[in-house]
Amino acid sequence: ELLAVAQPALVPLGSPLAQTKDNQNAVVSSGTYGGETVFAGRGAGGGPTSVAVVSDLLSVAQAKAPSLAVGGDELKSYFVTGDMECAYYLRLNLRREATRSGAFQKILAKHGLEPNLTLQKLRGLKSSPVLTLEPCRTSAVEAALQELVDAHCLSERPLALPILG
After folding, report:
1. 3-state DSSP call for residue 104?
2. Looking at the predicted structure, is the pLDDT value of residue 88 above 80?
């Protein structure tokens, strides 16, 4: 199984992902035997994007297809998923009735989500509970948030960010 995700996330300040600036991109690859490997370089921006587009257009014009074999061997295919397991940061704009009835806690529990820390109100936020969840599957968080929306527990779109270790 291969895990591939491209989305905003909270990362420790010491992480290579937290060190990117301006139009840099970074990819962290980790494996059982190789540990963590970081690939970083310039990303989106006028120059890099133009070069990539022109290169792709030239490949299409010259009818070049990428090789699907290396050294005569077929490439292996892997199942790729974005359903990772990690802690989550949630900010929920709950309707009063959902808070009073405990509906949102019941929905989180139904999906096996365990809050490990409820943060106090942040300045500038009205009554949005901010909490972190114990490590859980992305699919469980998405299902619980959809159920909160369907049950009309939320007054605004929730914010859910994975917290990478």
Report:
1. helix
2. yes
Please state whether beta strands 85-91 and 35-42 pair in parallel, antiparallel, or not at all (unpaired). Answer: unpaired
Kindly report, residue by residue over 107-128, the tens digit of the pLDDT.
999 999 998 866 555 445 455 6
Alpha-carbon Rg for the chain in angstroms: 21
Average pLDDT for residues 31-51, to the nearest whole number? Answer: 80
Report d(CA 136, CA 149) in Å as an integer: 20
Contact 10, 20 (CB under 8 A): no
Tokens encoding 144: 């619980």
Which parts of the chain fold into alpha helices (H)?
46-61, 96-101, 103-110, 138-150
Count other Cβ atoms within 10 Å, centred on residue 107: 20
Q: Within 10 Å of residue 108's Cβ, how many Cβ atoms?
A: 23
**Contact of 128 with 92, CB cutoff 8 Å:** yes
Angle at which helices 138-150 and 103-110 cross, to 10°: 150
